[in-house]
# Entry
Amino acid sequence: MSSESSKKRKPKVIRSDGTPTEGKRNRSDTEQEGKYYSEEAEVDLRDPGRDYELYKYTCQELQRLMAEIQDLKSRGGKDVAIEIEERRIQSCVHFMTLKKLNRLAHIRLKKGRDQTHEAKQKVDAYHLQLQNLLYEVMHLQKEITKCLEFKSKHEEIDLVSLEEFYKEAPPDISKAEVTMGDPHQQTLARLDWELEQRKRLAEKYRECLSNKEKILKEIEVKKEYLSSLQPRLNSIMQASLPVQEYLFMPFDQAHKQYETARHLPPPLYVLFVQATAYGQACAHMKSSQPPRQDKMLSVAIEGSVDEAKALFKPPEDSQDDESDSDAEEEQTTKRRRPTLGVQLDDKRKEMLKRHPLSVMLDLKCKDDSVLHLTFYYLMNLNIMTVKAKVTTTTELITPISAGDLLSPDSVLSCLYPGDHGKKTPNPANQYQFDKVGILTLRDYVLDLGHPYLWVQKLGGLHFPKEQPQQQTVIADHSLSASHMETTMKLLKTRVQSRLALHKQFASLEHGIVPVTSDCQYLFPAKVVSRLVKWVTIPHEDYMELHFTKDIVEAGLAGDTNLYYMALIERGTAKLQAAVVLNPGYSSIPPIFRLSLNWKGEKTNSNDDNIRAMESEVNVCYKELCGPRPSHQLLTNQLQRLCVLLDVYLETESHDDSVEGPKEFPQEKMCLRLFRGPSRMKPFKYNHPQGFFSHR
Amino acid sequence: MERAVPLAVPLGQTEVFQALQRLHMTIFSQSVSPCGKFLAAGNNYGQIAIFSLSAALSSEAKEESKKPMVTFQAHDGPIYSMVSTERHLLSAGDGEVKAWLWVEVLKKGCKELWHRQPPYRTSLEVPEINALLLVPKENSLILAGGDCQLHTMDLETGTFTRALRGHTDYIHCLALRERSPEVLSGGEDGTVRLWDLRMAKEVQTIEVYKHEECSRPQNGRWIGCLATDSDWMVCGGGPALTLWHLRSSTPTTVFPMRAPQKHVTFYQDLILSAGQGCCVNQWQLSGELKAQVPGSSPGLLSLCLNQQPAAPECKVLTAAGNSCRVDVFTNLGYRAFSLSF
# Structure
């Protein structure tokens, strides 16, 4: 313990006890001493351990001396001072030793520091070296990877697979024994093989080219030969014409027609193609008959092909035209200036211009009557029109009332409901009309033909109903095809029903209601009422009749219908029947309105039984249709009216107050006279038994 | 010059047929539902249409609410008569009476609840049923028509309990006397007969056509309509519309109307009648014509007063006849609108 405390004390002595002056002196001392002997050298010679021992010992001695001095001092006495002095000297010696030791220790410390510093510098140098080396290593590694990543061009070449290569390549290229183990050599060999093969293919390509050249030349030669053949064939064709005609094989004619058809405008072309196709299909269906001879539909093209051709090269022609017209205009101006009206007229004519070609369709019916349809195309309006004509084999006696039945103006009216063909179906036309001051197309249809909707559909023209500005109307084959069959059938039924009506009217005008034998069962054997008059009446007159008001109000009296007046008489009773004949007869029934003149005028508004009679012919018409296609409907209805009038008159209750016999004795067999709240008469005829009952 | 013509719409075959059917439609019968909000109408094609009176009368009524809610084929022949019990709608036409549940009728595709045919003797032609009459006191239904008899059907069991014979021609109409269990019937033979239901026998016969005041031989003898109120009876048809005192069997008032009447009814102190011609006639008991209100049909066959206490807002008079329209009169003064098949 004491040694430690002394140890601690020693540095203190050096630092604090050693005043600056003392320190300086000490240093200068050592420097002075250094001149004579090197204390540093001494340090090397001395053992630090022993110095430590010495230091410990010195310190103990000092402690002991101090303790003795204290002891002496505390004892006091005179001799003490000497002893104390002696001891002080001893302590001084010891202090000297301590000082020496202190210096030594300093020197040692300094030496140690120097050594450490030196060592540290060495380490730094080594470290720097190491860093350099590491950097070098990194750089080298980078170089290596760069090398490894290098791509050669040959890798892009798509080589044949390894197995294939060994299988196909000749051994002098593949050199299996060398290349098997060495991938580098192997790749080289494969590249060689590739080159070899490519050379061969190039060779082949050249060969093929020359071959092609040769063949082309051959073709050229053969073509020349063929073209030289054409005139010869033509001459043969020419020669064969009489034979064709003789054998009824109009191949040549058909061919010519197809040639002409190329000049048709698209809608007419569509119509032509579809109609021809339909005609052929129909002819094939009836295979038992000789084909083409009496086919039901024949198609032909009329008009000048040259004009049509001229239409296709407008630039030169139009210029010519212009100059021509200019010349004409000059002439006219010389004579007189064309008024505005004339100009407008010209414009109108131009707008309503037809294509020079038209398609003729002849539809033959079973009874050999023919419906001739001529289809035109109005180029500027982009619509099609049709003109119709009906011819029969036997000359028809035209009854007065049948005037409109077969007239070209009305024979096809309303083929489809509402399609009266008096308005243009192309909404865009209205704008065109506005420009040239045409109010409606109605005024021109007689000349141009009717633009029925079904005609547009046959030509594949489809007009949108709500977008009047749409100009792109394309001729569509599928539209035409889908309408061809129904329309043709409708046309046929229309013609047939019109012809049937035509015949019937002839006898109706003579007061005979023709009832065919297969409809006889609908009526009793004895019918007393007679038809005495059958006339056609104008639409306006029909509208004016007082007993047809409700028909007009129900919208069943359009101006496309035909109107007739029939008069049926029995005794003093006269039954007037106003008839509306829908153009769609006989699928749409004729509508009757009655007015009975007998004991005052009776119509449906004041007599329930007149109303019932009307409903018998109008609503229950289906049982009067007779055998299909129900052409007898109208005559059956008229005959039924006669029967109904008989029943009405015979069952009229007899007025007891009037003297004399009844005007119309009851001859019909009736179960009951009246029935129900409206006191209906027995209008229903029961066929085999022959009695009348209530419906 | 062109007259104002309704726009001729292009019509196809079916449209023309439908238009003709509508044109020749006759509505023979009407009946108001027990709740008072619905009106059933039956036509000559055997169809029953159900109209909603409350919808058509409401302030926000549209055109569609004047169309039937439901139309269904009920009979093969015309429907001459319809009545409503508390739950059922009974319809009759050619020989059969059919019952329909009012609750189900309003739904689509409803089926008849039951149908009954009175025992007929003839087989050649099925007699029609012209009139139905409910007798609430004995919960029975009286059917009359083509076979000249009054058949009583018990509504509980559905059996025909008795047949009253006496008419010599078919029966047009029936009326019930409220106090005593007596029924009046009028027929084609020109007689009005009074039947006592307890004794099941005829107690009085009035041969209307034999009285000079009202007979009109040119129109025939038939009695097309009758109505009764206490001791009074009004009947018309071939003979003129006449008010009778039943106890003394004497005609008291002859109403000056030339056209044969097809329906008559007492309403408060008025008599309403309709028939040939488009008007609903309103008479004072004294024989004075109070008003003639024109309807839309050329001839009327049935009037129906909706007096169901359940629906006071639907208290209207409806008239139907020779058209597909049912005229609705909200007050007796004028035609408000028409319901249409």
About this structure: DSSP finds 22 helices and eleven strands in chain A. Residues 79-149 of chain A form the longest helix (71 residues). Chain A has a mean pLDDT of 79.
